[in-house]
Specification:
Strand 13 (335-336) and strand 14 form a beta hairpin. The chain is globular, with a radius of gyration of 21 Å. The protein is built from 13 helices and 14 strands. It has helices at residues 23-29, 39-56, 70-81, 95-107, 124-133, 155-164, 184-187, 213-221, 237-240, 254-270, 272-292, 319-330, 357-372; strands spanning 12-13, 62-66, 87-92, 110-115, 139-143, 145-146, 151-152, 168-172, 191-193, 207-211, 308-312, 332-333, 335-336, 345-349. The strands form 4 sheets. The protein has a 7-stranded mixed β-sheet with strand order 2-10-9-8-5-3-4, with helices on both faces. It has a 3-stranded antiparallel β-sheet with strand order 11-14-13, with helices on one face. The chain is α/β, with parallel strands linked by helices.
């Protein structure tokens, strides 16, 4: 068998991620590769750091991109901050809250779970009640935008409650960064991670992270080695510090960082707040159209995530056949349900470059056709 070059089909990506990538970002990806310690590349890294601080709305010195997907960003936050002696309160309202719990358990720390219904935001009162009952807790972890359900939690309130009980916060912003309001410094978030492939509309494979000074001090002063050598951020700090000579830790994904830089430049040019507004406006257009098709949202309106729309599959409709039809006839990808909603819901993404009027129109027209078949 002769294997030839792979040429992927041209799809419109409106699932839970990855999202459509702008031609500008794809063009940046193909620029000449240089060494990861090349002075020109090091200068670009400084700009990536500054642009990530802009996107996160933070002045945290320790802000960077982990050279791996968002799941590695999650693990980097947990393994660097926690030891087996710690107690962590984790709020679970979907699949990705459950993954936080697994991280805590693998470290050997004690986990206390605040369970909230799937498809709903995390309940702030449930968190406060739990912290009152467990004064030994030192950390609170939650998902800002739960990709498995489309629920958006009130990160500002949850972080204020955690701070009230002297807990550091670990926040999943994989789907929320650049898509909805997120203010790391103003809200007092201590450790946060995201992904390049969601609302930043970059290629998959990078995880922006940021640590507050409080969190950075925990990492610098820990006496137990971090269980992951690659994700040990104390070894990476100097590479992203921008001070003096860069220390070698690993070969950075040079071209992927070109792409991230370009996507962040595009975000800065558009304006972060304007990006939030755009995602909300396109969500409102989509929600009206989905209502006309008789599709019901899982998440109550006031808790809905604009860039990830989860709707129930109508009775009698074959989930797989509809998604296959959309892919075959329209080159359109939407997402299947996950976890408790597997086989019962569709997840429609409006992330980054995909949050455009023409994508909304295509999705609604294609779904109308598919449902009529």
């Amino acid at each position: 068998m002769t294997i030839q070059s792979f040429i992927p089909p041209q799809r419109t990506l409106m699932g839970p991620g990855p999202s459509d990538v702008s031609p500008r970002v794809l063009s940046a990806l193909g620029r000449p590769t240089v060494g990861h310690l090349d002075p020109s590349f090091v200068g670009m890294m400084d700009e990536v750091k500054s642009l990530l601080q802009y996107a996160f709305k933070t002045e945290n010195t320790f802000t960077m991109a982990v050279s791996a997907p968002g799941s590695a960003g999650m693990e980097a936050c947990f393994v660097n901050l926690l030891t087996p002696e710690d107690t962590v309160v984790v709020c679970r309202n979907g699949v990705f809250g459950a993954r936080m719990i697994e991280n805590v358990q693998r470290i050997g720390a004690k986990v206390i779970i605040v369970d909230c219904p799937w498809g709903r935001a995390v309940d702030p009162q449930a968190l406060e009640d739990t912290l009152k009952q467990n004064p030994q807790a030192g950390f609170v972890a939650f998902v800002h935008a739960e990709t498995s359900t489309g629920a958006l939690s009130d990160a500002q309130t949850l972080c204020a409650i955690a701070r009230k009980y002297d807990c550091l916060t670990i926040v999943d912003a994989v789907t929320s960064l650049a898509g909805v309001e997120l203010r790391v410094d103003d809200w007092g978030i201590d450790a946060i991670y995201s992904g390049s492939q969601k609302c930043l509309s970059c290629v998959p494979g990078l995880s922006p992270v940021s640590f507050s000074d409080r969190a950075a001090d925990v990492i610098k002063n820990r006496t137990i080695p971090v269980q992951s050598w690659f994700l040990d951020q104390s070894l990476v700090m100097e590479y992203w510090s921008g001070q003096g000579n860069r220390s070698y830790h690993h070969t950075a994904p040079v071209n992927s960082l070109y792409a991230l830089h370009e996507s962040l430049v595009m975000l800065k040019n558009e304006g972060l707040e304007q990006s939030w507004v755009r995602h909300k406006a396109q969500h409102e257009k989509l929600s009206l159209g989905l209502g006309d098709l008789g599709l019901d949202y899982i998440v109550p309106k006031q808790e809905r995530l604009p860039q990830l729309n989860s709707v129930y599959i109508p009775k009698g409709i074959d989930d797989v056949k509809v998604r296959q039809y959309l892919l075959k006839e329209y080159n359109l990808e939407i997402g299947a349900g996950l976890g408790q909603f597997a086989g019962e819901a569709w997840r429609i993404g409006l992330m980054g470059y995909a949050a455009r009027t023409e994508n909304v129109a295509l999705c609604l027209a294609a779904l109308k056709d598919a449902l009529s078949q």
